[in-house]
Amino acid sequence: MNHLMQTLGFGSEDRNNGVSYKKYLLKKQIIEIFYKEGNKTIPKLCEITNNSVPNITNLLGELSNDGWICSFGMGHSKGGRKPTLYGINTNIGYILGIDLSRQYTRMCIFNLHNNYIGEILELNEGLSNSGNILTFLKESVDKLLNTNNIQIEQILGIGIAIPGFIDIRKGVSYSYPQLGDKPLKETFEDILNRPVFIEHDTRTIALGEKWFGLAKNITDVLFLNIGSGIGLSMILNGNLFRGHSGFSGEFGHIQMDPEGELCYCGKVGCLETVASGTAIVKRSKEIILKGKNTLISKITDNNPEKIKLKTIIDAANLGDQFAIELLEEASEYLSKGISILIHLFNPEAIIIGGEMAYADSLIKDPIQQKISKYTITLMKQDTQILVSQLKGEAALLGTLPVVMSKLFSEEFS
User: How confident is residue 413, by pLDDT bands cut at 50, 70 and 90?
Assistant: First the structure.
């Protein structure tokens, strides 16, 4: 049964009771209105839900007794006494967001006003470098909850952003066999003991941008997630596009160099082999080991194994010419790929996100200059190239719509 049903007092004995079910649906609608639109007065709720004042008043009383809502002062008066504003009690429950990457894991807790509770927990273990990722996740979640004095029972849902090939129909990861052959939702729920909702990392970033970032008012927008790999997510006609099997957006695996390096996907010369964070780091190490003088070495205490994409971006932002050149080289290949996207989709905007967003104008400017070589002018000038303002927080923020849309939409399971 949907966890929201249980917390709203709708039990299994009410399944066949039409009156109870209608009351539950109206309560859920009221909470959804508060969550998405903010505080409301009783008259406004009556107008939105097409219900009477006595009915809404009674339901608000029940929701208040259950701890779901509370008053937030007075609203504007249209004549006479000012009406009371009602909204969600921020302490009634929480959402846990997890950004599970290849090399790292980031997690945090949100209240129902979409605010962080405590600090983001950042860990240097992920899907590719953890001995037992499931045990690691369980221990890390317990640590985060204990740090913030929150009980697991207070978590309404957990959103997990995860990379790789995920079959949305089966919910199975084809990229990380260590997660088992069961649906990911079941695997994670078994260890975390709460409702879990899975989404591909790049699509989670797109949702974060759509709800909280630069894409709020854009209907057709593409998101590039450039970090250790390169992913693409598309919002077309206002809707997130997943593709037939959920595999859409593997932008990093279009071929750029027929004579290039073997990619981990098994193909040759993919965009990821020349323009991803992994590729940029690999090239920097090769050149530094040949004696290149660069700030990157100083930042890493002359230990090339410590070099990450963020290291190179930091050096570039400090004016290091070698680091700037590495980003410029990557921008050449990225601009070729982006020109293909512009010709295919004619988007209003393309947003650069992921770790590469920290490079800001150092990646945006060369891409804008170079796409002129590969893109029809009329189409190029119709598309904005933007850099995410949410940067590394986009995936975590994106877990909110992943979880809340499911909690509000699911009925019986």
Answer: very low
Candidate CATH numbers 3.20.20.80, 3.30.420.40, 3.40.1160.10, 3.40.1830.10; the one for domain 216-389 = 3.30.420.40
- Do 94-206+395-409 and 3-88 fall under one CATH topology? no
The CATH number of the structural domain formed by 94-206+395-409 is: 3.30.420.40
Please state the pTM of the whole predicted model. 0.86
Q: What is the mean pLDDT of residues 387-413?
A: 84
pLDDT of residue 18: 63
pLDDT of residue 261: 93
Q: Which residues pair with 40 in a beta bridge?
A: 86
Contact between 43 and 83 (Cβ < 8 Å)? yes
